[in-house]
Amino acid sequence: MALPSHISLFEVGPRDGLQNEKQVSTADKILLVENLAAAGVKRIEAASFVSPKWVPQMADSGEVLKGISRVAGVRYSALTPNLKGLELALDANASEVAVFAAASEGFSQKNINCSIEESIERFIPLIEKAKEHNLPVRGYVSCVLGCPYDGEIAVSEVARVSEILYKLGCYEISLGDTIGVGTPVKARKMVEAVAAKVPADKLALHFHDTYGQALANILACLESGIRTLDTSVAGLGGCPYAKGASGNLASEDLVYMLHGMGIDTGIDLGKLIEAGNRISAALGRQNGSKVARALS
Ligand code: HMG
Ligand code: MG
């Protein structure tokens, strides 16, 4: 298969990033989302309606979604682990929601306090209700290349959970290397195994960059038919239930690589870097993107 001519970026910095950074103000979060949209990002995960006891950083998600000056054509997404989360997302007028499962039992228990099968039972009524409201649902599968609790994960299990979520009605399945342990050949084999069950153009890659492998892993999968990549501006974040995990691959680093390869993203790299620098300053941390540091 040939390289794609266009890649759709799914920006997770305001959610996956900020859920694992120190608290910033609601106004800073809103500004981040608005700056990302101004840079040309069309899909932004802006909120997470989870228990505030589990993830206090996301407690103001409703105010964030309600406070954004929305741009036509941009989709503002929210994580929803259960019906309560969906109600809150509907109230805040999210453009779409996402359910999140895992390919490992250990992570499922630690992250959402239930087994994989219980989580799927929980998602069935959620997806049905979202459909009634014409709300698209995305599906995440965590620990696709390894688990901090269970170690190696069989690709057959990743494919099984992905297929279930897809058949339940998730429009896209995002494959999470939650702790960033994957390497290129392994990543490609995993994607090929999942693509035998779910069309490759309905898959997204969500690679954390803990071991510095994310760009290489993405490159290894680009000719497998993948059209969507999840990244986090300034490399924000990690995962509160995966100790030591660093943020997702920095959006700026991916955009630089893709543009250098002649692959269009529709994103203005300069404006993206400004958005990342602005939130990094609010957090009092260095911008985690090498490209942003080189070009700033
Ligand atoms: P639980 O304790 O088993 O559930 O948590 P519960 O139903 O017994 O509820 C406990 C309390 O939470 C109750 O409040 C509920 O009302 C409240 P209390 O009566 O004690 O005052 N509650 C909620 N509040 C707000 N919004 C809700 C909600 N649901 C219940 N939606 C639960 C189960 C799933 C809620 C909990 O485990 C949880 O919130 N987990 C989320 C953990 C999380 O956010 N992890 C990070 C996101 S996943 C991720 O980062 C991976 C990803 O990026 C992909 C990758 O990298 O692999 C997506
Ligand atoms: Mg993640």
Automatic annotation (TrEMBL):
The keyword Metal-binding applies. It comes from the Bacteria. Signal peptide: none annotated. Keywords: Lyase, Metal-binding. SUPFAM superfamilies: Aldolase. Pathway: Metabolic intermediate metabolism; (S)-3-hydroxy-3-methylglutaryl-CoA degradation; acetoacetate from (S)-3-hydroxy-3-methylglutaryl-CoA: step 1/1. Its EC number is 4.1.3.4. One of its GO terms (molecular function) is hydroxymethylglutaryl-CoA lyase activity. Residues 7-273 form the Pyruvate carboxyltransferase domain. Belongs to the HMG-CoA lyase family. This is hydroxymethylglutaryl-CoA lyase. The lineage of its organism: Bacteria, Pseudomonadati, Pseudomonadota, Gammaproteobacteria, Alteromonadales.
